[in-house]
Each structure stands twice: as C-alpha cells, then as structure tokens.
Amino acid sequence: MSDKGLLTIPQNVIDKCIDQVDILEIVQADVKLKKSGRDYVGLCPFHKERSPSFSVSPEKQFFYCFGCGAGGNALEFMKNFHNRSFISVIQEFADIAREDLTPYLMSSQQDKRAINLLPALQAANDLFANGLNDTVDNPKAEFALQYLDSRKVSAELIQRFSLGYAGYGPKIVELLSDHLTALLEAGVFGQKDHGPYSMFRNRLMLPIRDIKGKVVAMSGRALDPEDEPKYLNSKESSAFTKTNLLYGFYESLKAFGPNFVDQIYVVEGQFDVIAHHMIEKPAAGALGSSISIQQLRLLRRHTRHVTFVFDGDSAGLKALVSTGILLLESLTDYDVTYDMVILDKGDDPHSLITTVPDVYLAKLEDRQPWLDALLDNLDASPHLATQEGRMAYANEAIELIQQARDPLLRYQTLEKVAEKTGFPVKALEEKLEAMPLPRSGHAKSKVTPTKSMNEAAIRLTRMLWDNPSLSKLITEPVLWIHHGDELVSLLGSWAQQHQAGELDASLTPEDQEKLDRPGDWSKNVAQHRRYRGGAAALGRMLSELPSHYMEQLMRGEPEAVESTAVSLSWHITGICARKVMVELSSKAGQGTMTDEDRTNFANLVTINRNAMNRSKSIDT
To answer: Which of 155, 278, 388, 567 is most buried per CB count within 10 Å?
Structure first.
C-alpha cells in the first residue's frame, strides 16, 4: 500500500477496520449494480464504458473492472472513487470497527499533524464563535453582528452555522498557540520571518464542516470594504479537499434530515445557503466555481431531488453548462431528479429571499429539467437561426453526447438536438458513432506481461481466493516464499500466515451472537473468521502485485474440484524444489556443498518425487 511509508498502523489493525465494512454496501451507494451469479456487475465508475465490465464480489470483499483494471478492497474504492486520503478513510472505518488508531498515528511528525488537525480547527472555530459574542474583549465584533443583522441572519442561524469573528491577529495566535503546527498546515495561520500570524483578521468566520459535522476548514468574509480578498478560505489539507464537500450540507441535513432530505437546493454563495434556511429549505454550496463529481456523489447519497440555482451572469451560466456536462457524463440511473433554475441577471438567492421571498419561491417553481437547461445554454445556442449556426450547435452537442455513459440518455439528448436543429436523428447518430469512445483519465493503462505467466499459479490462486481453506494444500510454504516467482512467493507467505491464524477476520456482531447461543459454536465461528479473513487478505496482497496478474486472475472462473488444487499445489512445489536442486548441484560441481546442503538436497529429492506423483493428472 503506497501509504505505508506515511503511517504506522499495523496491517492486522487495518485489516480489522476494513473487515467491519461491507464492500457491496459501500459500492452500491455510488454505483448501480445488478446481481450476476455470486457477484454484482455494473458500469465502471473509473472509466467510460457502454457495457458493464465492473464487478463486485461480496464473498471476496473485492471489486474489479475488466475494462480498465481498477480493483481492490473497500478502502481502495473509497480512496480512488471519492478522492480521499488513506488516513481519512481508515479513520472512518475505524469508527465503525470501534478501533482506536491514536496510538499508531502519533509516532511521526506527519502523523501527529494529521491526527491533531481536526481538534485544532475545532479549537479555532470555538475561539471565533466566542469572539462574535464577546464584544467586550472584541469591540470590533459589533461590526460583524451589524453586518449579519443587515443580511437578516438571526441569532438562531448564527448558532446553527457556528458563525464567528476573527479579531486582533497576534491575540488569536497567542490563544491558539497549542495548535500552532496544525493550524499552519490548515492555513489558518501563516508564517513569516518574524513568526506565525493569523490569516484571518477582522473577518466574519464561516466554518466549513464535513458530513459528520467536524470542522475541516475555515472561510472568512472581510468586514472592511478595503480588505482583499472579500472571501478568504483556509487551504486544503489532509482533512479538507474542497471538491469533496459542500458548504452547509451538514447543517441542512441536521436541520431538515437528519440524514436525508427529499429535495436540496445547490447554490453558489455561502450566504445564499444560509438564506435558504430562512425560508425553511435545505441548501448547500459548492466550494468552487462549479460542482464536482465527488460533490454530486455526496448529494446522491442524501437526497432524491437536487435543484441547482444559478445566477444569471456569465459566471453562473458557465457553471450551469459545466454542471450539465458532468451530469451527462456521469448519470447511469435516475433515482435522483436533477433540475435547474436560472435567476435574472443581477439577482442572487440571498437578496431575493431577504427582500421579495415570494418572487424567489415562484422562480424555484419555474425550474427546468437539467438536460433542457444545458442544451439551451451551449455556446452555439444563440446562432440556431442560421444553417451554419445549427451545424455548429449540432457538432458542439455531439461532442458532449459522446461523453454520456447511459445509452437511453444519449438517445434522448440526440432527439432534443434534432428538434432544435431540424437534422434527422439518424444523421446525428451516424456522426456520433463515427467518433471514438473517449477514455477516462481514471482508467489504468493495461500492462502486458513481458514473460509467460505460471498458469498453474494463476489457476490455484483463483481456487484459493474462492476457498481459502485450501491453503492447507500448500505444504511447503517456505520453499514457495524463497524460490517461487512473485505470485508463488506471495501465495506461500499468505498460506503461512493463514494457516497460523494471523489473517483471521475480527469478531463480528453475528459471530458474537453465535457464541452467545447455547452449545459450542467456537469452532464454527473460528472457521468462519479464518475463511473470511483469508479471502480479504489474499485480495489485498494480490492487488499490490503488477496489474497484469489481477487481469489474468479475473479473466477465468475458479475450478471446483479439490483434487485439481492438490495437483496444482504439488506441481508448483515441484518447480520450486527442482530450482533449489539445480542450485545445490552447481555447488556440488564446484566442491562447495556442505553437510547441511546434502541433507537439504535429500529432502528436496523426496519432495520432488512426491510432487511428480501427486501432479501427474494436471493439465499444464
């Protein structure tokens, strides 16, 4: 795992955390899957494709795409799909497993900063929130309260969004000196030659919270018109990636949820979000110029209706088109309804809600299906009156349509373009089909093996992964570890650990329920833990090999006859034994063979003889 150099969490603790989550449940929250035999299949979320090649195995707790080669366990899916760091995902899994990772995260300076970041940001937020209410020690906080009053923000909303005030810079640094290193990393403090300083001075503070309510970043609104920029955000850190979160989403879920809302409004500004709470409507704001795929996935988990509200200026229309293109590229099911509202130029949700709320509510009712809004606002839209304009529009639309993953959505969009341009759907289809299918940057390049694979090892690995109890057939794991190729060596190491019980899965509530029943269930539970842990560990270890191994493994189904596994295991053992025998024979020819070597050679002769006899039936 690439993060091992950054963390000191033992692998068995990582495995225990992963074991407590269900990969099917995690993947299904973001990818539409259908059952196919023992597995589940769907369109790959890591590359563009038009027929399903993405597979999830609940038994193996593993996902794999036959198209791009992406694969791994629940941890890898969360990291890659949601663009999250290893530490943030494993801490989430640890909370589910009730595992305390603190002792393992305090051994290096980088780990200490990561684990101390959230408490430091919470301490800063507490200080700023208290500063807004304490006008004695912070007399300029009165300006912040006056500003909030001018924007019709009530005391209840101040508390709901935990708004605050950052006053005199040196005093902030002094009061938060215990969190200096973490707040420097978060960008709440800066560093100059004379020492640390507060990035936020005389600003209204708006904390940015994650879906669980933890403060992960800060945003400050200037109160002095001469201060630039008007809005200043703390920087991205190990706790905060702006494309992964939505401002006010936690507050909206808590106020109107608690974990799910029927409809949510996605707006551009932070005060636009707060204003929606004034009219009892949940809202969230993108922390950039347009919505990201991670933010779209976050919305999908917690609502069934998303309405995007855009300002009517050029920036708002640009964000509309960007959002529409993202929906066109990513939608594969229609569990969530998406539509759009475009305000008149110069209007914004906050000003309308606080002055003419009825006008704004009427605007919300006049929303447009997202696809219609997208097609009405393409660059070539104003030129549909001319033949050249219609051709330019069709070409622009087709370039977007080819990004769509869902065939029905592609056809529906083509029909709408045909209506707008007057061109036949058939002609548009022909032009679309002539364009090559784009390949996503998420897709992994396939690696062609430079040497022939050990087919016996591949076949056996499929069987071991399907039924880890067959590890008992690997009777000479040390021989495999030291004298096999990288796959055989991995299998030897895995079998040795599995047979010793080092890979057993952690005790689940279901296991405990069995143990609490009358009768002796300990053997049953132990076997279940060994089976489950063995499959998960083998998948993790295999995913660390070069990608061509996984591609070979996933291309075939495991064979079902145990005698085949016996023959394959002995066949590999024989190959390893004969390799060592050749090395020892070379030593004998050089006259450097020791008594220990001779004893070893005699043992290898016996092992090889058994291997020859036990693997005669194998088809290699």
So the answer is: 567
